Backbone:
């Protein structure tokens, strides 16, 4: 089905509010947003309208039962001054996996990818020109039945909003290995970008932030032995000359688009990448014998973020200076070169907008 995307432009752009030297993640939103509604088994045509508050009944389903999913994508200013989006089809596929698990409707590719392309074209001026910056794109879907009875909803709204972004973490992150609370079990929703996955992590996050840590590294729910993901990022360890990252087989870890890009590029370079269960004991042993060279997180918002310190119980693993990290620095530069159009896009990852 071909959608006609109506565009209703804001009378006066708010772009003057954008201070490119002082961008804070998720604080300022671009002029427009995309909205589409699902009812009676079909998606209506999307509309691009001025970014504004929306009005919803207090009985709206997602507010009560959490049928809500989202994605994170980024648009970059390329070397010619144009704008390009990184791997939107991969996010579209993942959104539909989340939708299926959450009893929500499939989104047609055209609605997601072409809708996003058109929105970014309309708000291209909001894609920062400052080095290392981008426009963060947040597609999301919510269940909008006005009904507090518990049943899968029948009405849904899909929206895309965007926000200028700089580096998510300004310094190496300090991570606390969690072995009390659990993020996900096999058969649950750990592999989805369901809003509730993030909500359930807030209390444990508050606890470790009070202790001075940035984020949690989750362990598996059965033994609290195998590391999983960080919640905002997938995790990689460089041990000896191998790169190791937890595999996705149990369905408890998000299949990160950045994770996949990192694995693909490292393998092409000839680096051995192992996707397999990795225990905290193995990481500690590698730290103690000096073979734990690097540890980093990957995600759309965070990009590639070095882990400066990793704490398990009272054991503090302090990693060597990031400047010496060959693998992470190579992958970060290589990925950025592709995202910002400084290097050939041999994988067809980039969607040119304008
Ligand atoms: C992303 O990297 O896009 C995320 O979803 C992480 C976080 C901002 C929720």
Residues:
């Amino acid at each position: 089905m071909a959608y006609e995307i109506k565009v209703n432009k804001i009378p006066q752009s708010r772009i003057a509010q954008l201070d490119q030297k002082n961008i804070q993640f998720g604080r300022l939103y671009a002029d427009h947003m995309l909205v589409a509604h699902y009812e009676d088994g079909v998606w209506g045509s999307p509309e691009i309208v001025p970014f504004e508050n929306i009005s919803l009944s207090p009985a709206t389903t997602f507010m009560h039962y959490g049928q809500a999913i989202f994605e994170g994508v980024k648009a970059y200013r390329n070397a010619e001054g144009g704008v390009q989006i990184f791997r939107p089809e991969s996010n579209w596929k993942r959104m539909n996996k989340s939708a299926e698990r959450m009893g929500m409707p499939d989104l047609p590719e055209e609605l997601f990818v072409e809708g996003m392309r058109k929105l970014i074209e309309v708000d291209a001026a909001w894609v920062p020109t400052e080095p290392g910056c981008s426009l963060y794109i947040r597609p999301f879907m919510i269940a909008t039945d006005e009904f507090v009875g518990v049943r899968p909803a029948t009405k849904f709204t899909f929206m895309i909003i965007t926000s200028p972004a700089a580096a998510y973490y300004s310094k190496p992150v300090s991570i606390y290995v969690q072995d009390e609370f659990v993020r996900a079990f096999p058969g649950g929703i750990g592999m989805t970008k369901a809003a509730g996955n993030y909500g359930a992590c807030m209390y444990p996050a508050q606890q470790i932030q009070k202790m001075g840590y940035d984020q949690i590294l989750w362990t598996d729910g059965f033994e609290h032995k195998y590391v999983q993901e960080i919640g905002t990022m997938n995790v990689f360890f460089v041990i000896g000359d191998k790169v190791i990252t937890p595999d996705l087989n149990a369905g408890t870890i998000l299949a990160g688009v950045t994770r996949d890009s990192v694995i693909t590029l490292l393998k092409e370079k000839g680096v051995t990448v192992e996707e397999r269960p990795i225990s905290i004991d193995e990481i500690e042993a590698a730290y103690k014998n000096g073979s734990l060279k690097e540890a980093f997180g990957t995600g759309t918002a965070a990009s590639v973020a070095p882990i400066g310190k990793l704490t398990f119980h009272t054991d503090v693993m302090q990693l060597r200076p990031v400047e010496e990290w060959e693998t992470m620095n190579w992958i970060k530069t290589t990925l950025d070169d592709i995202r910002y159009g400084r290097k050939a896009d041999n994988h067809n990852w980039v969607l040119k907008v304008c």
Notes: The pocket of 2-OXO-4-methylpentanoic acid is lined by residues 72, 232, 299-302 (CB under 6 Å). The first helix runs from residue 61 to 65.
